[in-house]
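Show me a record, fold above all:
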Amino acid sequence: MSAVSIYAEASPNPESMKFVLNQQLLADGVSVDYPTLEAAANSPVAQELFGFDYVGRVFIAQNFVTVTKTHPDLAWTQLIPELRQFLKGYVEAGGPLFTVDPAAEQKAAQAATAGDPTAQEGQTAQKIIDLLDNYVRPAVEQDGGNITFKSYHEGVVTVNLQGSCSGCPSATVTLKSGIENLLKRMVPEVQSVVAEGILV
C-alpha cells in the first residue's frame, strides 16, 4: 500500500469538512451516507469515526470522506489533525472500509424504491438521472456531498441530499435556484424538485 496523503477542504456547510485522499475508496458514482452510527453498520471505518464524540455524520465517496461535526463551538483547526491522522493510519493499515459492497447495496435500494412508473415517467426519470449524474453530482461532490435521484411522479422530482449538503445553510437555495431551474429547463415535464435529507 502506497503512502496515503490527505488534505482537508472546507465545504459550504460550516459544520462539514471534506477529507480528500490520494486513494480510491469507492467506484466513481458510488457513495454512502451515514447520518447515524446505526446506519453505518456496513462500514467499520465510519463506525470508528463515530467513536469521536464530535462526529455526527459520515459521508464517503470516490476519494474523500466528509465528516459533519455535532458541536458548532468546536473549531475545525482543533479537529482536522486528529481526523486526518486517524484516516491516514486506518487506510495505510488496510483497515476494512465496508463489509458489503456499497455499489450492490445502492442498486438494491434503487430497485426497491423505483416502484412501477409508467413508460412515460420511466423515460422522464432516466433523463433526470442522466442530468443529475452529468451536471449536478460533480459540482455537489466538490462541496463534499452528493445528490441522488429518489423518484419522479406527476411532475415532482424527489432527490436525496447527502453528506455536507444535508445540513448546509445554502442547500435549499441550491436546490430551488440551481437544480430545479436546470431540470425544468432541460426536462419540460418537471414542475418542482423536493429533497429529503435537508436538516434545518
Q: What stands out?
A: Helices lie at 44-50, 76-92, 102-114, 119-142, 171-186.
